[in-house]
Automatic annotation (TrEMBL):
Domain named Peptidase M48: residues: 55-232
Keyword Protein biosynthesis attributed: no
Cofactor section: Zn(2+)
GO CC entries: membrane
PROSITE patterns, sorted: PROKAR_LIPOPROTEIN
Protein name in the entry: Peptidase M48-like protein
Native organism taxonomy: Bacteria, Pseudomonadati, Pseudomonadota, Alphaproteobacteria, Rhodobacterales
Extent of the signal sequence: 1-23
Length: 240
């Protein structure tokens, strides 16, 4: 089970959307202490994370309720403390359908300002608001049916049909993934601005991640295209 960690000394608001936990020591030896100069940096990153959560979460939940596309708009925002993970954030739902936004420690410590963290948070919340998980599952199902159907009518054996079905599901799931990312960038821009952050400054986070380019069946659009969406959305909002 994934463990979620945030600095225990930080004051949390009554909404309680940041999960706090501690790991149980496995042996008598104390954990190695981090260098003293790293501790203030980690503490500042943790405080910034909590502050951004407290500011962005109510705005994202209000946007979710206005969209009326989801039954559950009660976001649970957590920090994933698994070690050795590359910087990442993702959106999922739990067994009861509650939306979860997870940010690992590498990402929390890598953002250069609260605008970047707010933009990433708004983007991930937008995936839920826009029902992207459900829409991707629908696309995968359609792709599986089409590919397996083609294989069946061409006389393929059962194994080939199953292979075609699996391939079709993958193709179907990826077909609209770039569009989903751009949709989330657009709504994420609006959420970021409404929360009082600068979405253009926040989207500069793209400049520090690998550019996926415009690959066929890639999952993410080029970074330049994403920046264009952010700038256009801000312009449509009248500058903010």
């Amino acid at each position: 089970m994934h463990r979620f960690l945030i600095a225990a000394f930080l004051m949390l608001t009554a909404c309680g959307t940041v999960t706090v936990s501690t790991a149980t020591p496995r042996g008598p030896s104390p954990s190695p202490q981090r260098p003293a100069q790293e501790q203030p940096v980690a503490s500042a990153a943790a405080r910034q994370f909590v502050e951004v959560v407290q500011t962005v979460e109510p705005v994202a939940e209000a946007a979710c309720r206005r969209a009326a596309s989801q039954d559950n708009c009660d976001f649970l925002i957590v920090a994933d403390d698994r070690p050795g993970q590359p910087a990442n954030a993702f959106q999922t739902v739990d067994s009861r359908g509650r939306p979860i936004l997870a940010f690992n420690l590498a990402l929390i410590s890598s953002v250069e300002n609260p605008d970047e963290l707010a933009f990433v948070m708004g983007h991930e919340a937008s995936h839920h608001i826009l029902a992207h998980i459900n829409r991707m599952q629908d696309s995968a199902s359609v792709g599986a049916v089409i590919f397996s159907g083609i294989a069946a009518v061409t006389g393929a054996n059962a194994d080939a049909v199953r292979t075609a079905e699996s391939l079709g599901a993958q193709v179907g799931a990826r077909t609209f993934s770039k569009d989903f990312e751009l949709e989330a960038d657009r709504l994420g821009t609006i959420i970021t601005a409404r929360a009082g952050y600068d979405p253009v400054r926040g989207a500069l986070f793209f400049n520090r991640i690998p550019d996926p380019g415009n690959r066929f069946l890639g999952t993410h659009p080029p970074n330049s295209q994403r920046m264009d969406v952010v700038r256009r959305t801000v312009a449509e909002m009248g500058g903010r």
